[in-house]
Amino acid sequence: MIKIGIIVGSTRPGRKAPDVARWVLDIAGMRADAVFELVDIQDFDLPLLDEPVPPSQGRYAHPHTKAWAAAIAGFDGYVFVTPEYNHGTSGALKNAIDFLYKEWNNKAAGFVGYGSAGGSRAIESLRLVMGELMVADVRAHVMLSLRTDFENHATFNPAAHHEQAVDAMLDQVVAWSRALKSLRPDAPDTAADAPHVGQRMGSQ
Predict the structure, then answer these.
(1) Cα–Cα distance between 2 and 4 in angstroms, integer?
(2) Is residue 83 within 8 Å of residue 110, measured between CB atoms?
(3) Distance between CA atoms of 105 and 31, rounded to whole angstroms?
(4) Model pTM?
């Protein structure tokens, strides 16, 4: 069974990313084609990149990096939930991505963005990063507006039509993740009877 990580891409106090990610997870949990798990980068308490050797060498020195690598390595694909800050993704998410290399390779990714412009520019910035990491980013994505999908710019209340966009994006992420798995002969298999709505990863 394909395993997809839904990554909460913000650590800011008062962040909206967990609500958005749980909404994606709820929609994903109605599917039978993959296992989905929530991964909150805040739970891993990553500092600014502090590894002395480039990640492409795979020689991680610090426990926090090793824990993050172990969490990410087991997935076949990802959904990045990202806010948009200053026409780009969050610094916390970019930093978390930069800690690793081979754990991302030959996998697929989709995006759920939110912001004044629907997170579109944050998504575009992530697409450039994914190419360098050998991650195949799918065309379908989800854009949530702070004006129309958050009451008073605060409480997440997405329009119903976004559910169809989430499913379309997940269709592509699951299909591409399955196809790319053949490029990773050592990729672990996920048990076929694993629950479709996975547990939250990281500290509780």
Answers:
(1) 7
(2) no
(3) 25
(4) 0.91
Please give the DSSP secondary-structure letter assigned to residue 6.
E
- In this structure, are strands 77-83 and 2-8 parallel, antiparallel, or unpaired? parallel
Length, in residues, of the chain: 204
Nearest-CA neighbor of 103 among 15, 9, 172, 7?
A: 7
Give dist(CA 131, CA 180) in Å, integer. 14
Q: Is the pLDDT of residue 192 over 80?
A: no
Measured CA to CA, the distance from residue 136 to residue 76 in angstroms comes to: 11
Cβ-in-10-Å burial (0-12, 13-18, 19+) of 153 comes to exposed
Structure confidence by residue, pLDDT tens digits, 138-159: 999 999 999 999 999 899 999 9
First to last CA, the chain: 25
The C-alpha atoms of residue 27 and residue 128 are separated, in whole angstroms, by 27
